[in-house]
Amino acid sequence: MIWVIGNGESRLPVNVNNLQGTKIGCNAIYRDYTVDHLVCVDKRMAKEAQLKFAGPLYTRPDWKYASLLTVPELPFPQETRADEPIHWGSGPYAVYIACTLDTEINLLGFDLYSKDKNVNNVYKGTQGYVKETHHAIDPRYWIHQVGKIIQYFPSHKFTIYQEDDWEIPESWLESNITLDKISSLL
Question: What are the strands of the beta sheet with 37-39, ordered from one edge?
């Protein structure tokens, strides 16, 4: 079993260190928790993480520094701008890497949407991130990219842990998806 941990604020009540299984984290999560793999496709985050994270660290081929791994090549054709590797974020790449390692994938902290007009990220306002008052990020590319992964791996089981009022994107409504409540992890 693999946990892919995004940095949406919904994961704040969960102690990631208590989750059982392999953990793939995104960007600055290593500041607070121990993960087995880290994905940083932002150049600044990759530079920071390479100095402090000891495990496998994935980044873009263009930003590969000594001892870093390259995110894998995408297995499907690039039909839209959102399919181009340069537009893939750490979260979708982390989900894809998880699918290459196991068939049971748990997603935590993949909020996609903001509850207000500001960015929804645990690390907003810290080094390498936008200010707390920065506008919410448009999630369309993330939704498209994770949706493609879910469809590409129909025999994989994906469980998404989210808050009660979270709405799953329509493109994610596949038979291999299960929703569970974050409260079940507490």
Answer: 69-70, 57-59, 37-39, 22-26, 2-5, 104-108, 157-162, 177-181
Structure tokens at 67: 């001892």
For residue 42, give the 3-state DSSP assignment.
Answer: coil
Indicate the number of domains in the chain. Answer: 1
Instruction: Tell me the residue range of the domain where 55 lies.
Output: 2-185
In three-state secondary structure terms, 5 is strand
At 82, give phi and psi (nearest 5°). -65, -20
CB 168 within 8 A of CB 176: no
What pTM, to 2 d.p., does this model score? 0.97
- In tens, the pLDDT along 12-41 reads 999 999 999 999 999 999 999 999 999 999
